[in-house]
Design a protein that fits this description.
Layout (H helix, E strand, L loop, with lengths): L1 H13 L7 E7 L13 E6 L4 E7 L4 E6 L8 E8 L3 E9 H7 L6 E7 L2 E5 L6 E5 L1
Parallel strand pairs: 1-7
Antiparallel strand pairs: 1-4, 2-3, 2-5, 5-6, 7-8, 8-9
Bound molecules: 2-acetamido-2-deoxy-beta-D-glucopyranose (2 copies).
One 2-acetamido-2-deoxy-beta-D-glucopyranose (NAG) binds next to strand 7.
Length: about 140
Amino acid sequence: MLAFSLLAMAVSEEIDTLLITYHIHITNNLPLESPANDVPTLRLHCRSKDDDLGERAMFVGDDYTWNAKVNVLRTTLFSCNAQWTKGKQRHFDAFTASRDEERCQKYHNSCMWSVRRDGIYFSNNNSTWINEYPW
Ligand SMILES: *[C@@H]1O[C@H](CO)[C@@H](O)[C@H](O)[C@H]1NC(C)=O
Ligand SMILES: *[C@@H]1O[C@H](CO)[C@@H](O)[C@H](O)[C@H]1NC(C)=O
């Protein structure tokens, strides 16, 4: 049993991050503009060099998720433009291999972003959030 655990640990450390499918989440946690939540308050446009994910209009509470893999050269980069209807606009990197391949392995291989009143917050464990991109 111990031998098996040690072997499993050794093998899991060998697994290359190139095999990992990362999940990138972006949630609209801006304040509600109307109680009915009938207006999308966030416009989000994400793209990589090869993939244009298109522009989307997000209501409060909406979560937009896509998957990404790290390329062989480890240059994978998805950047986004976020525009809040209150006139705020911010460009941010939602996934960049050099910064995220390790830190986003902690929780279901997820990079989580929460768009809020004062900026765009990151979490890699869905518990502690840091404002990495103030508006
Ligand atoms: C993070 O936690 C919230 C609240 O518990 C939950 O709704 C959400 O699905 C979680 N996100 C992920 C990516 O697991
Ligand atoms: C979440 O991550 C933060 C920052 O790395 C850490 O301080 C905190 O203890 C973690 N929380 C949990 C529940 O793992």
